[in-house]
């Protein structure tokens, strides 16, 4: 047992010596190679020029100044200077950097846009035993004046980590934006906008040789997007104008937003399929306030969807988007037919449930972009309370007739139907449907129920 302990002690000492030698070698390599690395970075791109000046150096710690100059931008030459600290340890190499205020000209450029000096901090780390690297950048909060008010931008951060160019994780996070107007209408700001807690994550794939970046998956989340405005302000009245109801306000709210986007691998024709699923709650009220009383939102709660669209050539679509008048180029980038697969679209309103699903394929005219042929099957279900709240008195008979013919079913308080479209043939639950008949019926009912008044009257 004692011999084993001695062997372990000797082995540990040898490992410690090897690690110490590795640290010294890594430290010396940093001193000798940092300038050649900077030169190589500058030669590989033409967007920014980097320069590094050492300040202090020890085996485990390095300190220096890194200047970053963008020679050609729409603001002219931009220059910023960062203080850099590099730490070596047995498990990692870490570098932290922070922007030095009033060095270079970036702060004066921000001041010209009425933005105060921003703090910019970051860190880069490499873990050799895990073959993994990571980096992060964070900006401080700031306030920006806008027309008739101001916006407060919270802290923002960007990070990237991964083991190779095909296994990267990229993310952006923002505390959000809060905007308000200086002018008040009926004791409230003319407008208020909140966009809070935004998070975007992505898994890009880098093709450095061809200078190409593709995003296989993107997730977007935010807590709240709220817009609340004075109706009087939106239509151009001032707070002093005499209006019947100065308290009128409109409001829109989008909350618990969580959406995924992903692209499939390319097929033989370099086309991909777009998949997206997500959830959110939508609330709106127009008006939200009337006669100084707050009115309830119209809600679409727990809205969920899952859809696939394809196939299309992403690169060809981006190129065609630069020439929107060339409809044929856009159509050529799409598959023929273009397919839609709606696995689910559902939401709740005032306690009622609504859901639909289906699939469709569309052939578009190559010159006009209009649908030439549509083949679709869509099924829908909705609680009776939701449908009845939407159907006005003049359409009640039409709904009853559709139920009598079997085009729409009502069972246990739930309406349901399946819509089939094949070209110009439209059926509900297999029953032929002609929308013009409904229009004629509603027009004749309107003629009977609303007699025309004479000019004398």
Classify the beta-strand content into a percent band. Answer: over 45%
How many distinct folded domains?
Answer: 3
The secondary structure category is: alpha+beta
Helical percentage: 10-25%
Region (Disordered): 432-457
Summarize the structure in words.
It is a single chain. The chain has 457 residues and is an alpha+beta fold. The chain folds into 3 domains: 25-130; 141-312, no CATH class; 335-457, no CATH class. The protein has 8 helices and 25 strands. It has helices at residues 2-44, 106-112, 231-234, 314-321, 327-332, 384-390, 396-405, 435-449; strands spanning 49-57, 61-70, 78-88, 93-104, 120-127, 132-139, 142-146, 149-153, 156-162, 168-181, 184-185, 188-189, 191-207, 212-230, 249-263, 272-290, 293-294, 298-312, 334-349, 352-364, 371-383, 409-411, 414-422, 425-428, 431-432. It has a 23-stranded antiparallel sheet that branches. Strands 11-12 form a two-stranded antiparallel ribbon. It starts with a helix and ends in an 8-residue tail after the last helix. The model is unreliable at 3-29 and 444-457 (pLDDT under 50).
Summarize the model shown.
The protein has 457 residues and is α+β, with helices and mostly antiparallel strands. It is built from eight helices and 25 strands. The longest helix is centred in the N-terminal third of the chain and has 43 residues, at 2-44.
Attribute tags:
8 helices; two-stranded antiparallel sheet; alpha+beta; globular; single chain; 25 strands; 23-stranded antiparallel beta sheet; disordered C terminus; disordered N terminus; 457 residues
